[in-house]
């Protein structure tokens, strides 16, 4: 409890310091790196380091959640993440042409409202929680560009979601955050902050977009705590994860309205248990026998984003952007095998607040219909009552306040209908506060 209180106080102090430093921070904002910082340009040191090939990242994300309705009790919980990294331009540092090295460590801490308040949701209401409240090596990869960026090769420690089905984490509910395949089948596709050995090659398609393919080592030990700080190769790998993606990147209205339309698929050579059948092909819930082992796990996804309006602000993101994400996984091994989410983000809602934004999203995560059918059958046979799980529905609305460069304050409200995909659970209302500080 003391550690959580300390973190809340530290966040509030940082916010106040940022507001007081508003004028100085804007004056020191450099033109080379793409992100603003709360602490400014360090007297020009950041720009000098960037020009020499060193770009530091230090980002703090906190998420406060309070369930005003739903769950077994009403609670307020706080969770956060610190990410520290550096991008090293190896051409400038060691004359290795068209190459960079990315290193990132993350530390997560705090409590999970879903667990503590008994919300029983399929997706987290605080996306930054999870995968162990500890320090981890999250990225350690080399990236090389060939033939005037025609080919881009990345290899080392990263995750599939760093390159495939890539999507932002502006929303606080996990339904609308990050690479969707990892949210749907997280038992074998690991999103940030987990990293695994692998690589991907991307080929630019002139005037269209790109095509890319990857290969990632499959091993549950990446989720563990042994050697979590080091880029070790764990023994006992179970297979290889093979994603593929085709992207169309159009620009409309003379480049003012960019779009991104990605379609992809994945195949894993690993094995998982069948969600309902036993080794003899009968219902395991009825026979009590071990589950059948299925080899070959697969799925597909699409990620669409389109800027549809652009206001007069100098911010290239200013205006209305729409998005649609969908993912489907095989019905043999996936407990949840379909998720779809759509929404909008409007940046610069008022002339006096050009960097503020409003976001709204709706989505659903569906339980495998084979499991639903089994649960209905168990109740019909008098073996229940067994909760019947179908679909969970989520809505989230947020407003982002950007008082100074490097600081985002994002109050939000979430509504979850049939949480846990069960009509027996009370619908949930969560009030949240997400803060992002880029130092």
Provide a brief overview of the structure:
The protein is about 15% helix and about 45% strand.
What does this structure look like?
The chain has 439 residues and is mainly beta. It has 8 helices and 17 strands. The longest helix is centred in the first third of the chain and has 19 residues. It is globular. The N terminus is likely disordered.
Average pLDDT: 91
Gyration radius (Cα, Å) is: 23 Å
Widest β-sheet, arrangement of strands: 1-2-3-4-5-6-7-8-10-11-12-13-14-15-16-17
Structural class: mainly beta
Please give the share of residues in helix: 10-25%
Helix segment tally = 8
What form results from the Cα inertia axes?
globular
Low-confidence stretches: 1-34
Largest sheet: 16 strands, antiparallel, barrel
Cα end-to-end separation: 25 Å
Strand content bin:
over 45%
H/E element string? HHHEEHEHEEHEEEEEHEEEEHEEE
Please count the beta strands (DSSP E, at least 2 residues each). 17
Sequence-ordered SSE layout with sheet pairings:
Blueprint: H1 2-20, H2 22-28, H3 45-52, E1 54-69, E2 76-89, H4 90-94, E3 99-110, H5 113-116, E4 135-146, E5 151-158, H6 180-184, E6 196-205, E7 209-218, E8 239-248, E9 251-252, E10 257-278, H7 284-287, E11 291-307, E12 319-329, E13 336-347, E14 357-367, H8 369-380, E15 391-404, E16 407-417, E17 428-438
Antiparallel strand pairs: 1-2, 1-17, 2-3, 3-4, 4-5, 5-6, 6-7, 7-8, 8-10, 9-10, 10-11, 11-12, 12-13, 13-14, 14-15, 15-16, 16-17
């Amino acid at each position: 409890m003391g550690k959580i209180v300390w973190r809340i106080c530290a966040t509030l102090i940082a916010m106040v310091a940022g507001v007081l430093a508003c004028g100085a921070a804007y004056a020191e904002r450099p033109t080379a790196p793409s992100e603003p910082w709360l602490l400014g340009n360090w007297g020009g040191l950041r720009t000098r380091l960037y020009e020499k090939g060193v770009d530091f990242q230090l980002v703090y994300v906190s998420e406060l959640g309070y369930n005003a309705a739903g769950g077994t009790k009403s609670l307020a919980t706080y969770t956060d993440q610190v990410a520290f990294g550096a991008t090293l331009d190896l051409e400038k540092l060691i004359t290795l042409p068209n190459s960079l090295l990315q290193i990132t460590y993350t530390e997560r801490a705090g409590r999970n409202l879903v667990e503590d308040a008994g919300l029983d949701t399929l997706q987290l209401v605080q996306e930054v929680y999870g995968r162990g409240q500890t320090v981890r090596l999250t990225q350690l990869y080399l990236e090389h560009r060939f033939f005037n960026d025609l080919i881009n090769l990345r290899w080392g420690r990263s995750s599939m979601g760093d390159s495939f089905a890539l999507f932002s984490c502006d929303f606080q509910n996990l339904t609308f955050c990050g690479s969707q395949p990892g949210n749907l089948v997280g038992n074998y596709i690991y999103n940030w902050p987990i990293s695994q050995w692998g690589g991907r090659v991307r080929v630019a398609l002139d005037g269209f977009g790109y095509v890319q393919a990857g290969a990632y080592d499959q091993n549950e030990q990446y989720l563990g705590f042994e050697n979590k700080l080091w880029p070790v190769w764990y023994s006992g790998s179970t297979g290889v994860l093979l994603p593929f993606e085709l992207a169309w990147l159009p620009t409309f209205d003379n480049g003012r309205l960019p779009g991104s339309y990605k379609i992809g698929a994945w195949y894993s050579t690993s094995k998982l248990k069948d969600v309902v059948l036993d080794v003899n092909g009968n219902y395991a819930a009825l026979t009590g026998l071990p589950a059948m082992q299925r080899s070959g796990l697969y799925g597909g996804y699409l990620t669409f984003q389109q800027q549809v309006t652009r206001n007069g602000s100098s911010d290239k993101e200013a205006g209305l952007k729409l998005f649609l994400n969908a993912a489907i996984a095989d019905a043999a091994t996936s407990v949840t095998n379909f998720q779809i989410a759509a929404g909008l983000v409007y940046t610069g809602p008022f002339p006096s607040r050009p960097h503020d934004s409003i976001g709204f999203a709706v989505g659903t995560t569906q339980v495998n219909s084979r499991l639903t059918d089994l649960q209905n059958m168990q109740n019909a046979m008098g073996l229940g009552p067994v909760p019947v799980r179908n679909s969970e529905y989520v809505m989230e609305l947020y407003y982002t306040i950007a008082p100074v460069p490097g600081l985002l304050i994002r109050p939000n409200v979430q509504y979850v209908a049939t949480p846990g995909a069960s009509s027996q659970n009370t619908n949930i209302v969560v009030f949240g506060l997400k803060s992002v500080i880029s130092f």
